[in-house]
Amino acid sequence: MPVSPEKEIDLKKVENGVASAISAEEHRDLAGLNTSKKDSTVSITVVGASGDLAKKKIFPALFALYYEDCLPEHFTVFGYARSKMTDAELRNMVSRTLTCRIDKRENCSEKMDQFLRRCFYHSGQYDSEENFAELDKKLKEHEAGRLSNRLFYLSIPPNIFIDVVKCASKSASSANGWTRVIVEKPFGRDSESSAALTRGLKEYLVEEQIFRIDHYLGKELVENLSVLRFSNLVFEPLWSRQYIRNVQLIFSEDFGTEGRGGYFDNYGIIRDIMQNHLLQILALFAMETPVSLDAEDIRNEKVKVLRSMRPLQLENVVIGQYKSHTKGGVTYPAYTDDKTVPKDSLTPTFAAAALFIDNARWDGVPFLMKAGKALHTKRAEIRVQFRHVPGNLYKRSFGTDLDRATNELVIRVQPDEAIYLKINNKIPGLGMRLDRSNLNLHYAARYSKEIPDAYERLLLDAIEGERRLFIRSDELDAAWALFTPLLKELEEKKIVPELYPYGSRGPVGAHYLASKYNVRWGDLSCEH
Ligand SMILES: NC(=O)C1=CN([C@@H]2O[C@H](COP(=O)(O)OP(=O)(O)OC[C@H]3O[C@@H](n4cnc5c(N)ncnc54)[C@H](OP(=O)(O)O)[C@@H]3O)[C@@H](O)[C@H]2O)C=CC1
Ligand SMILES: O=C1O[C@H](COP(=O)(O)O)[C@@H](O)[C@H](O)[C@H]1O
């Protein structure tokens, strides 16, 4: 939503890294980084406000930010969708569904009332410039002549992203401040559709205005990855093929696609979790040291990792789909029991894959990903298994299974955030017996502060113009280039997923895949 042709040209200069013709201050203004101007407003429009994500995540995150005094002094939240609702009805919906970490805090209901007074609703079509012009009029009334900054959160199905961006751009972009758009995933289904989406968005926006959200990047322990590695001497020197045997990136949910089958069947677990959440974690984990903590420096390094990777191959992938299972008298449904899912659907609800980064640091190290729904536990973890100690003096104490003696660093992203390092230790006493113990940083025990929801961090970053945790278009292209050939092959060859019972550990095939690379999956259930 460029405000003027000149500004668009300048932004493109910034985007291409040729910002020398403009001053640093102008650069900050153009990129929307000068948010501290006193007499400015921020209007946040949640497009698709009647939907699941808006209720579950976006409104609660906005309220938490308001409660913590993180939102600017002058801000307004507008819900926009086709459903007919009054302001009062939106407020009712928000207050009814608003459950977040703040709930039990002091003055919560008083703060909530104040927050709700800043929330409004406008009903309109997604492809109507006229309806967006009406929204613009209302926004202007609230902005009351102040410098206006506008954030549009597209919490809608991707097939209507471009319509909305076009109408908002033409009829509701800011006349004198910044206009930014947060785009929810999925960003396409493959390289072609993603490129088409990017082209469509860029007809109306410059890259600097687009904030592609991957909420895993806003999770506390994912953000902490770089801190752990780059600010501790004990880790960075070990971060390579020389000491690391394999890395595991695991996402497991103990519930199925309940209620989202219609969406999910068109995407599957590889597109829903692996190509974005797990791959983003991998890139952050494996990147070289960035020049600085600036968004562009970090994203440049992530792109390099992605471009050094081999596209996934069918022989390095296992797919599964959950089937019905009865346990304790309760019958859990099969994926295909969902009425919105075709009975003969081959969409995977589980996948495991081995990926490789062909660069000097990671040559030959398998990065194993595993993602699944309706498994036995809910967990997201990064597991780093280290090599054997060369010439280990204590090897006899471990019997024949030396793999059990290697160190392992576990970063538990959720739930119950923790970082622990498995070490070998002498059991106290007169003899010489060893055991495996954990050096444990358990967040709930160490920090009394609650962990903010990822959406809070990301919304605040978008308001402040901080792009570090958002996906740049070349990152997205590189990510799709890795997965598109595999996705096409799976679909063209109609590969049948291995069935696994709801609530189980997933298909056995995942274990064969790991053992092909001498890897044993970390056990998600029996550790702290
Ligand atoms: N829900 C979640 O947990 C997550 C969602 N996402 C992504 O966020 C976005 C929003 O998700 P979610 O809230 O679940 O989506 P919904 O299906 O609930 O859709 C949001 C709103 O968009 C409108 N809408 C829905 N379908 C259509 C359609 N076919 N044509 C036009 N408008 C439609 C509806 O509003 P109305 O009819 O009032 O106009 C609906 O309330 C999606 O891109 C999704 O992939 C990403 C991560 C997690
Ligand atoms: O993006 C998605 O993420 C959720 C899991 O998010 P979490 O923060 O609750 O771990 C997943 O359930 C959903 O399928 C996917 O679209």
Average pLDDT, rounded to a whole number, is 90
CATH superfamily caption of the largest domain? Dihydrodipicolinate Reductase, domain 2
Characterize the largest beta sheet: strand count, sense, and whether it forms a barrel: 9 strands, mixed
Q: What would the CATH topology of the largest domain be?
A: Dihydrodipicolinate Reductase, domain 2
Secondary structure class reads alpha/beta
Q: Within the largest sheet, what's the order of strands?
A: 16-15-14-13-7-12-11-8-18
How many H/I helical runs?
16
Please count the beta strands (DSSP E, at least 2 residues each). Answer: 18
> What is the helical fraction, as a range of percent?
25-40%
Number of domains: 2
Query: What's the CATH architecture of the largest domain?
Result: 2-Layer Sandwich
Name the beta content range.
15-25%
Cα gyration radius (Å): 24 Å
Tell me the span between the first and last alpha carbons: 49 Å
List the SSEs and their pairings:
Layout: H1 5-15, H2 24-30, E1 40-47, H3 52-67, E2 75-81, H4 87-97, H5 108-117, E3 119-123, H6 129-143, E4 147-154, H7 161-171, E5 179-183, H8 191-202, E6 210-213, H9 220-230, E7 244-252, H10 261-265, H11 268-286, H12 295-307, E8 317-323, E9 325-327, E10 330-332, E11 350-355, E12 367-372, E13 379-386, E14 408-414, E15 418-426, E16 434-442, H13 443-446, H14 454-464, E17 470-471, H15 473-492, E18 498-501, H16 509-516
Parallel strand pairs: 1-2, 1-4, 2-3, 4-5, 5-6, 7-12, 8-18
Antiparallel strand pairs: 6-17, 7-13, 8-11, 9-10, 11-12, 13-14, 14-15, 15-16
The structure holds NADPH dihydro-nicotinamide-adenine-dinucleotide phosphate and ligand LXAUTJHC.
Residues 215, 253, 272 line the site of the ligand O=C1O[C@H](COP(=O)(O)O)[C@@H](O)[C@H](O)[C@H]1O.
